[in-house]
Fold this sequence. Notes:
CATH architecture of the domain at 3-100 and 268-487: Orthogonal Bundle
Largest sheet: 2 strands, antiparallel
Structural class: mainly alpha
Pfam families: Nup84_Nup100 (PF04121)
Strand content: under 5%
CATH class of the domain at 3-100 and 268-487: Mainly Alpha
InterPro entries: Nup84/Nup107
Shape: elongated
Function: Functions as a component of the nuclear pore complex (NPC).
Number of helices: 41
Distance between the termini: 147 Å
CATH topology of the domain at 3-100 and 268-487: Hyaluronidase domain-like
Radius of gyration: 49 Å
GO molecular function: structural constituent of nuclear pore
Organism: Dictyostelium discoideum (Social amoeba)
Amino acid sequence: xxxxxxxxxxxxxxxxxxxxxxxxxxxxxxxxxxxxxxxxxxxxxxxxxxxxxxxxxxxxxxxxxxxxxxxxxxxxxxxxxxxxxxxxxxxxxxxxxxxxxxxxxxxxxxxxxxxxxxxxxxxxxxxxxxxxxxxxxxxxxxxxxxxxxxxxxxxxxxxxxxxxxxxxxxxxxxxxxxxxxxxxxxxxxxxxxxxxxxxxxxxxxxxxxxxxxxxxxxxxxxxxxxxxxxxxxxxxxxxxxxxxxxxxxxxxxxxxxxxxxxxxxxxxxxxxxxxxxxxxxxxxxxxxxxxxxxxxxxxxxxxxxxxxxxxxxxxxxxxxxxxxxxxxxxxxxxxxxxxxxxxxxxxxxxxxxxxxxxxxxxxxxxxxxxxxxxxxxxxxxxxxxxxxxxxxxxxxxxxxxxxxxxxxxxxxxxxxxxxxxxxxxxxxxxxxxxxxxxxxxxxxxxxxxxxxxxxxxxxxxxxxxxxxxxxxxxxxxxxxxxxxxxxxxxxxxxxxxxxxxxxxxxxxxxxxxxxxxxxxxxxxxxxxxxxxxxxxxxxxxxxxxxxxxxxxxxxxxxxxxxxxxxxxxxxxxxxxxxxxxxxxxxxxxxxxxxxxxxxxxxxxxxxxxxxxxxxxxxxxxxxxxxxxxxxxxxxxxxxxxxxxxxxxxxxxxxxxxxxxxxxxxxxxxxxxxxxxxxxxxxxxxxxxxxxxxxxxxxxxxxxxxxxxxxxxxxxxxxxxxxxxxxxxxxxxxxxxxxxxxxxxxxxxxxxxxxxxxxxxxxxxxxxxxxxxxxxxxxxxxxxxxxxxxxxxxxxxxxxxxxxxxxxxxxxxxxxxxxxxxxxxxxxxxxxxxxxxxxxxxxxxxxxxxxxxxxxxxxxxxxxxxxxxxxxxxxxxxxxxxxxxxxxxxxxxxxxxxxxxxxxxxxxxxxxxxxxxxxxxxxxxxxxxxxxxxxxxxxxxxxxxxxxxxxxxxxxxxxxxxxxxxxxxxxxxxxxxxxxxxxxxx
Length: 985
C-alpha cells in the first residue's frame, strides 16, 4: 500500500474525542472479527468480494479494516479461495447478496455439473435476449432519418401496425407492447435530434432554445412511457402471478421476508418500481480523470512542516485519518478539498443511479476502503452464517452524525440518504425527479426497515432507534403524499413550478392509477402545452388505457375529454394538410355521430376526385361509416353551413373544446332550405287584344347566374357516387338541390347538376338501393320529373331563341321600297298577321312601283328570294322547336309532377316539410309552363289548340287549377278568350 494511505501520521490512538465518526482505534477485544489488518500495497485493487457471502466465517479471507470500527462489521470480502468466484452483485434492496444460495452445501459432483449446465443455459438465454433487444431497438434507430416523412406520419404508421390484430395476441400484453413501442420511438427521436447535423442553424440562439425544448419534451415523454410500462406491466400481469406464488417462510429471516414482501405487498413493490424508474434516468455516471483521493497536497505540506507550531499556524490537520478534520476541527489543503468534493459528487451520482455496490467499488478503486464499508452498511442477514450488519442502528446513527456535521454538501447528502435525513439530502437536488427520488428512497428504506426489524440478526446488541431521523418522513405513507409535498413546496418555488408541468401531472396520475381523473385533466393540460407533440402523446395515452382489459368507458358524449383531445389532434393534422392521417385518429373518437361529423367536415373542401376516393377508402379501412360520412359531406355543402368557395380549413373551427364541438355539430333538421319562390308571372294587358310579350311568358333561365358556390354544391354530389348503394342517396340529394336551384331561378345550375351525374345512375341506383321499393320509386320518379322539367325548359328557351331571330323584311328591302315596309308595319302590326300572312307581306314589301330599271328589278327579285329562303328555314325551325317544347311540357302536365306515385294530385299534410316544398315549387313552375305552352302554340300557329288549355287545367285527375292563384287563372282565361276570338275571325 502506498504511503499516501498511511493515514495515522499523528498519535491519535489515545484520542477519545467523541466527534470521531469513524474511529481509527481497534474495536474492543470482545469483537470476534479482526479489524486490525489494513490493506497493503499489493491489495489495493483486490476489492472484488461481496458482502455476506461467506459459507464459513473461518475461511481464508482478508477483511478490510473500516476506520470507523463499527463499519468493520459490514464486511468487504477479499476472497483468497480460488473456488469461490464472488463478485459484486445487485440486489433489489441495496445490499450485495450473491445470486447463489451459499447456505446450501453441494453434496456431489453431479449437482455441480447440473448447476454449471443451468448456468450456461441461463447465460445463453441472456445473450439471446440481449440480441433480441438490440435488434428490436435497431429497427427504430433510423426511423426518423427519412426527412420526407413527418413525425406524425411515423407515429401514425407505427400505431397502425400496432393496432393490427396479431396471432396469439395476449390482451394483457397489448397495452404493454404499445407503451414499449412508443417508449422506443421517443428514444429514437431523441437520438435523431442529437445526431442531426444537417441543422446548421442550431447554434443560433432561437433555434437552439427550440431544439433544447423539443429534446426536453421528448425526454419527458419517454420518461412517462417508461413508468407507464413498468407500473402497468406489474399491475396488469405480474401482480396476479406473484399473488398466486407460494413462498415458504416457516423459518423466516430478513431476506426471505423481503422476498415475500416484494411478491405480496403491492405498495412496496410499486415503490420499488418507481425507484428503479427514477434511478434509470441517472444511470450514467461520469468518472473523473484522476479519481484517487489521497489528500496528497495535505500530505506534502505535512511532510515539509518541521514543528507543531507551524502546523497550528497553517490551520491544517496534523493527521490524515478520515476523522481528522472533524476531530481537530481543521481543514485539509484546498486542492485536496476540491478533489474530495469532486470524488464525493461522483459517489453521490452512483447512489442517485441506485448503484450502492458501484459506489462502494468506486471508493475502493480510489483507495477509500473505509468509505466503501459505510456505503454497504444497509445489509440484511440471510441465515445463521450470513450475519450482515447486526449493528445496523449504530451504523445509522453514525451516518446521521456525518449528515449533520460534515462540511461538504455531497457528503452530507450521501449519509443523509443512508440514514433518512432528508434535510441533509434535499439541498443538492436539481429537479422534480431528484426530489421525488430522495423522498421515495427514504420512504422505501424506512418502510422496509420497519417490516424487517422483527427478523433482525440475533447478534444485534444495539438499542433500537424508534423514530427516523427525518421529521417529515413519518407523515409520508405513499408516493401520493410525496407528490403533494412537492406541489405545495413553498420553500422551493422551482420544484413547485415543475410540479405543474403537464408531463409531471400525467406521471402523478399514472402513479395514482386513476385514468378517469387523468382523462378529465388532459384538455386543461393541452392549454399549458399546446405543441402537436404533446397533443399526439395525449391521444396515444388515451389509447393505451383503452386497450387495458380493466378499462371502463367513462363517457361517449361528443364533448367528453377523450374526444376533445383526439379532436384537437385531428385539427392539427387537417391544418398541416396531412390528410392521409386523419382517418385513423378520427376512428379513435368514441362517438360515431362525432366521427361522421368530424370526418365529413374535413372532406368538405377536398376537390380532387382521386383524393376524395382515397380518403373514403382510408375511412372504410379504419372502420368509419363511409356512407354516413359521404351523405353528411353533401348535406353540409348543400345546406350552406360552411363556406365552400375557398380551400381553407379555417372555417372548420376544430378547436377541440366543447363549445366548438357544439358549434361544429351537424344540423339535425333537413339540410336544404327552400326559399319560397316568387313566381315568374306573365303579365298581359287584359284591356287589349294584342299578343303577350314572348320574353315575359317564357321561363327566364338566366335570372340568376351560376356561382362558384353553386358549382361546389353540384360537385359535392360526387361523394355519393363512389359506392353503388349510395347512388340512390345521390339521386335524393340531387332532388333536394334541384329544388333549391329552381326556387332561386338557377336553371343553368340545375342543368349543370344533371350533366354531372353518371348516365346510368338511375338504373344502377334502382338495382342497388338499400331503401324499400316504394321510397326508391318515388325518389327516382321525382328525379325523372326534374329531368323532364329541365329538358322542357331548355327546349322552350331554344324555341324562344329561334323565334327572337325571325328575319325582318326591312333588312332585305332596298331604299326605294321602304314605303312598302311602312305600310306593312301600319296595317299588319298584329303578331298573328305577321305569322299567317308572311307570304302576302313579302309580296307587298317587294312589290314593284313600275319605274325601276332592269338592274333594280333584278336586285329586288334577288332580295325577295333571299328573304323567302331565310324565312322558310326560320319558320321550319320555329315549328320543329315548338313541337319539341310542346311534347316536353305535356310530359309534365299529364303527370303528377314531383308528387309521389301514391299522391298524384299533391295533397300533403301540414306537417310534411318535403310536401310543403313540393307544393311551393309546383305553384311556381306549373302556371308558367301553361303560359309558355300557350305562347308556343300561338307562335307556331296552333290557335285552336291554344284555346283548349282551360280543359287541361280543369282536369280533375291532376287538379292543376288548385295550384293557380286567382290572378293567374284570370290571365290564362284572358289568353284563351283572345285565341277563341281569333278563331271566330
